[in-house]
Every structure is written in structure tokens, then in C-alpha cells.
Amino acid sequence: MTNLTPNSSFSVTLRLQIPNRVGMLATVTQAIATSGGNLGRIDLIEQSRQQSIRDLTVDAASTEHAEKIFQSVKELNDITVLDVYDRTFNLHRGGKISIASRIPLKSVSDLAMAYTPGVGRVCKAIAENPEDVYNFTIKRNTVAIVTDGSAVLGLGNLGAAAALPVMEGKAMLFKEFAGIDAFPICLDTQDTDEIVKAVKDIAPVFGGVNLEDIAAPRCFEIEKRLQSELDIPIFHDDQNGTAIVTLAALLNALKLVQKSIANIRIVINGAGAAGIAVARLLRKAGAEQIWMCDSKGIISTNRTDINEEKQEFAVKAQGTLGGATQGADVFIGLSGPGLLTPEMVKGMTKDAIIFAMANPIPEIQPELVPPNVVVMATGRSDYPNQINNVLAFPGVFRGALDCRAKMITTTMCLEAASAIASLVLPTDLHKEHIIPSVFDQRVSGAVASAVKQAAREEGIAQG
Asked: What are phi and psi for residue 444, nearest 5 degrees?
């Protein structure tokens, strides 16, 4: 497999004491380059006539690669490594989010209104008219990010505590991209009934619930039950967020190869929560030929080992992933690293589309795809066409909260995907630009508007 590109997720800072002589810093930078590191900032901390102390920021491709870079610098004559720290761990130290008051408390009168006795009047008003909770509390702009830690990123069942850094990051994205206050709720149970009860019990505080990193097939039942038993939108981002952004990217990719979604054959590798949701939304968007594969190959009508969700997409064909890709137009990977080989891709159509979205290592490295691939996308930020859920979920919730939608429907998801795709103008569309940047400030507003319009047309908006 091709070596991964150095990136900031494996970034380190080296604090070095360097003799103040011509060429000494160049010796250090050469050692870093020879080790495959990507040199970033160089900061001068102290300097005397004899020596200097500098901080060098270096991107690596993995923890092992970072250690190799450190050792190569440590072995240099006359260079002293004073300190080394992992920038990612340093960023997380103490947590990434906090709670801040919206209103300053500067006087006794402020305190009397914000808390006792004045707050009692507001409590009574809500008791008399429960709808006032949206007017006088945080509920109207607050989302619970709920997980059981059973499917954390691509790392597996790490448990509730280990899932917390991801949920904190999700809360940051909600605030940064949509102005929504979100809070991580990491439940120390993986029992479906207990999860449903816990979410229902805390629901009075929140205007919506974002389910996150809950393993399939349990996640399907949890989402379905919560949506039927609560009157606030429930959204499993690993399913629906992934599906929305994948569809948006595919709509634009198909424009480049001048094909209709109804006439192509799509292979989806990975039949977990994301794979099933993507397949469902693509089918609603008009896809008629979807071959889904899991670790045992094509999900065939002849197999007896598939669950209810997989049975929705069982086809008459049988065989391996390699067989499924022969003559296929599109490959969508939601599985694991290196599972798609160049030989498999060569068997696809001459204008193939590859979405290899396994993270951090995709199903096939972009450097390895053969010439018949017209569009290549991954889930990584260091390659073109990053398919990232942050393009969807902030705007989806912004729209749902603003119109007080009771739920998030398939139509709302379809409209969200269309809104994302439309932001790439025909004049800007090309094989390395099929999807907007996650930092495109138009995205959240466009998605929110599309979601609100769909909710109102479906009659599920309450405000």
C-alpha cells in the first residue's frame, strides 16, 4: 500500500537547541525531509551568540512515522532535543468545549431576574404553557449528541469514555458551522432499551438529537423508536449525514461523465449503518442498480446469513467484491483500508467513479487508481473531493430547529443533498472539485433553507 500523506492529525512540535552556526538549521530540516516529514512552522524562541532554541512543527503520516522523524533529529550531532509533544493530544488537553453564559451577571438585579426569585415566574409560565420552553430556554437551539461508544469512527467498540473526544469535536462543528449549542451525551450502556429510555428522559432539554457512533444493527432500531416516541428531530449522522453528502457528490460526479443515476450500476462495499443508509437514499434519488457487498461478498438472495436491513438490497448476483466491480460505473466504499485493488478498478467502466471513504486509510489510495477513473473522492482532507458529513448535519439541524420540525424525513435529506451539489457551479465543476469545501460559508445556510422548505411542504414544521 502507498504510504499515507503526512497530515496535521499526526503533527508534532520539536523544541530544539541548535548551535548558532551557519548550516545547522539546514541540517535539521534535511533530516526531517529525508525521514519523509512535512515541515511546517519554525519559531525562534530564544537566541544567543552561541545557540538558538527553536520550535519546529512537523506533519507525519502515523505515530510510528512521527517517532522515526524524532529519532532522525535526535541522532544529529550537536543538536539537542529539549522537548517533543504531539500537537493533536495537546489540542485536546482539558477538553475542547465549555459552557458560557449568554447574559452577564453584574448586579443584584441581574441575579434576581436570571435566578431566584425571578426565574420562578418563568418556570410557572412554562408549566402553564409547555410550548414556552422554546421561547425561554436553550431548547430551541440545543442538540444532544448521543453515543454508546460502540462504533467510534473506524476504531470499533471503544466505550463511552473513549467516545467523548469525538462528541466534543462534533459539538464544536455544530457551533462553528451552524451556531447550534450541542452537548455530548456518552451513555455507559449498549442496551437498546436503556439507550432509548435515557434519551427520552433527557429530551426536555433538547430541540433535537444527533445519534453518533452507534453500531449497526442496533442504531436502526434506536433511531426508529426515538423518532416514533419523541416530537423532536432524531438524526443518526453516520447514516443520514453520510448518505446526504455521498448523494451530493455523486450527483455532480455524474454530470462530469454525463450519466443518469437511473442507468448506472453502483457497488457499495460495507453494509453497516452508513452503507445501508447511503443505499436507501440513492435508491430514493433514482438509483435502480445497487450491488452491496459485505465481508463475505455480494449480498445475494441466495445467502441466508444477512439481516433484515441487508435483505432490502439482496440481488440475484453472487460472488466477491472483485466480481461485483466488473462493469460497474460507481464504487462507494464504506468499509476498510485497501479492499479495492487496481485490478478491480480496471474492470469497471472506462469513466469510473470511485468514492473510497474509509478513514484514515481509504479502500484504495488515489495514487493507485488506473486511468479509467474519472472522479476520485475520499473521506480525507488532504486529497481533493473530501466527502465530509460536516457539509450536511449542521445545516440539517439548523433548518430543522428553525422551523421546529417534528422529524427529519427522506425528502428533507434529498433536498439537502441537492442544495449541497448546487453550490458547485457548472463553470467550477471538474474532476477534483465535485463538492464544496467544508469551509464554504454558503453550505450551512443553503442546506438549512432546503430543509425548512421541505419540512413546510410536508407539513411537519411547527414554527
From this structure: -60, -45
Segments in the chain below pLDDT 70: 1-3
pLDDT digits (tens, 9 = 90+) for 365-405: 999 999 999 999 999 888 899 999 999 999 999 999 999 99
What pLDDT, on a 0 to 100 scale, did the predictor assign at position 297? Answer: 93
Catalytic residue, candidates 74, 96, 106, 115: 115
Q: Which residues of 425-460 are buried (b: 16+ CB within 10 A; e: fewer)?
A: eeeeeebeebbbebeeeebbebbbbbbbbbbeeeeb
**What pLDDT, in 10s, does the model give residues 141-179?**
999 999 999 989 878 899 999 999 999 999 999 999 999
Catalytic entry in 170, 310, 406, 452: 170
For the question of residue 115 being annotated catalytic, the response is: yes
383 catalytically annotated:
no
- Provide the pLDDT for residue 308: 85
